[in-house]
Amino acid sequence: GIDISKLRDLTGYVTLDIGYKNTGATKSAITFLDGEVGILKYRGYPIEQLAQKSSFLEVAYLLIYGELPTAEQIKNFQTQINHHTLVHEDMKKFFDGYPSNSHPMGQLTGLISSLSAFYPESLNSNQTAEEINLTIVKLLAKMTTIVSWIYKKSLGHPVIYPQNRFDYVTNFLYMTFGQRTEEVVIDPVVVEAMNVLLILHGDHEQNCSTSTVRIVGSSEANLYSSVTAGICALWGPLHGGANQAVIEMLEKIKADGGDTEKWINKAKDKNDPFRLMGFGHRVYKNFDPRAKIIKKACDDILEKLGIDDEVLSIAKQLEEVALKDPYFIERKLYPNVDFYSGIIYRALGFPTEMFTVLFALGRLPGWIAQWKEMKENKEPIGRPRQIYVGAVDRDYVDIDKR
Ligand code: ACO
Q1: Which of 116, 265, 278, 359 can pair with 339 through a Cys bridge, CB separation 3.0 to 4.6 Å?
Q2: Looking at ligand 1, which atom is closest to the CA of residue 278?
Q3: 356-391 burial, b if ≥16 CB within 10 A, otherwise e?
Q4: In what order do the strands lie in the sheet with 31-34?
């Protein structure tokens, strides 16, 4: 019956849980996951149904506002977003300033953070619900433009401006792969694949980047800054950066002759820092349900696009060997969502360094929903405790005596 938040005042003790392996930091009504069984639901809807039947924008609406939209609500939402896809022209100076070979995630963190400078109404921590919604719409809208412009910059190509006639995902693909000189045809297979990938990345409860968004937002930092912090957290190879790391690993294995067993043994060797990227998960101790969907999507898309990718067969062999190996079985290590996502992104034509940026595009509605929920719940500022293990008492020593 003890209120854990009062534990220290009552007993003098704090709970120590490094890495928050079993510490609940909030109550949330957004995403349910059962890692032992392998279940994932957004607002109660199974991820399998959403991936099969919904669109990314509809899922974004569901995550942020809690309900599936009516036909009119989604139409209005799309219209509002189309209205805000342009970014301030002065922001183009940022694009010009970045070295052309700079990592897209480095650019994304800077550009999203800069939105608070260009759209300062977001700085008011007492925004009305309507004002918050406008900031949300602006962020969702401008993200597609910023991400596609980062890609265009990496090619040295001129940017393409958004068009109101397209839906969210098509507009993004148009700005990314469109050419100014041609009539643009966006392949529906590509639109469908992109929708599925983004839906699967939409939210994943209190992961590293989402917890970061909530903790930064709890200081009443604005939405753009809070989401930027999430993007920074996502970048690491143990989190969203894994999708880039997986393809780099598969390429290395291919160049090394494709001996998957050798690499599995490396991953098992405790004296070798190598880990099988795209394997293992803090919460899933069973198959990641997103990985199941993505594996099938990967087969379908490569077949539809007529692509034969050797790294896909290496990925499948690795999975097969690992799933039979006692090391992986005992530790309940299964492929996670990122094991196959990179192969699809590659088939769609994205360079490896863009993969984590695409993850951020997919996770954006989740970050927004969690930030909004944290505000609506009026959660207190996040501030973990610690166990101090440093020196107890020391007198200052003058520099000439050290
Ligand atoms: N390859 C080899 N061994 C592994 C792997 C792996 N990919 N993942 C975990 N292990 C081993 C650990 O060495 C440890 O072994 P031990 O008990 O003998 O010491 C055991 O499994 C438990 O691993 P932890 O690191 O304690 O698990 P944790 O929950 O802290 O880490 C994580 C989870 C970070 C995802 C980890 O599995 C990993 O590094 N995976 C590879 C990176 C990756 O794919 N990240 C993407 C995660 S999904 C996402 O963010 C979208």
Answers
A1: 278
A2: 44
A3: bbbbbbbbbbbbbbbbbbbbeeebeebeeeeeeeee
A4: 31-34, 39-42, 45-46
Give pLDDT, residue 24: 93
In this prediction, residue 186 carries a pLDDT of 83
Give pLDDT, residue 182: 58
CB contact at 8 A, 367 and 213: yes
Asked whether the predicted pLDDT for residue 200 surpasses 70, the reply is: yes
The verdict on the CB of residue 279 being under 6 Å from ligand 1 is: yes
CA atoms within 13 A on the CB side of 210: 25
CA of 373 to the centre of ligand 1 (A): 29
Distance from C-alpha of 256 to C-alpha of 132, rounded to nearest angstrom: 52
Spatial contact of 336 and 280, defined as CB atoms under 8 Å apart: yes
d(CA 346, CA 324): 28
* pLDDT at residue 1 in the model: 62
Q: Are 326 and 228 in contact (CB under 8 A)?
A: no
User: From the CB of 29, is ligand 1 less than 6 Å away?
Assistant: no
Predicted pLDDT at 181: 54
- Are the beta carbons of 358 and 338 closer than 8 angstroms? no
C-beta of 297 in contact with ligand 1 (< 6 A): no
Q: Which helix (H) or strand (E) holds 32?
A: strand 31-34
**pLDDT tens, 237-273?**
999 988 989 999 999 999 999 999 999 999 999 999 9
| Torsion angle (degrees, nearest 10) of CA 377, 240, 285, 46 | 60
Q: Which residues are catalytic?
A: 281, 338
Binding site membership of 285 for ligand 1 (Cβ less than 6 Å): no
34 CA from centroid of ligand 1 (Å): 18
242 lines ligand 1 (CB under 6 A): yes
- pLDDT tens for each residue of 295-335: 888 888 888 888 888 888 899 899 999 999 999 999 999 99
Distance 23 CA to ligand 1 centre (A): 19
